[in-house]
Amino acid sequence: MAEKKQILVARARTLRRDATKAERFLWGRLRRSSFPGIRWRRQQAIGPYIADFYCPAARLIVEIDGWSHDGRDRYDDSREAGLMALGHKVMRFSNSEVLSRLDSVEEAVWRECLSQCGLKPYANL
Length: 125
What we know:
Elements: H1 2-17, H2 21-30, E1 41-46, E2 49-55, E3 60-65, H3 73-85, E4 89-94, H4 95-100, H5 102-116
């Protein structure tokens, strides 16, 4: 069991080092949280999965899907169901969506995050 955990942690490190442009841009926004007690982790091992972004306070996972997800809908659906069974909310965005609408994606993520934490989002996030 410890060996599987070590493998996941090593894989998460590699994914952090090799982040896509979309992941780097969104991470730049999320890591500068101005909400007390709300922090984000990137490439976080959760159960047998690695989430792109994870907010423990909200139990919210944000996945950025690039070309590596093409044709993997069944796997992605199964993975999402597994994460939801562990009590997490999952949001998905494509690389192109993040790159072309970063402000809108960030706002949607923060609104969901605050909602999951039981906080009311500001009118102008």
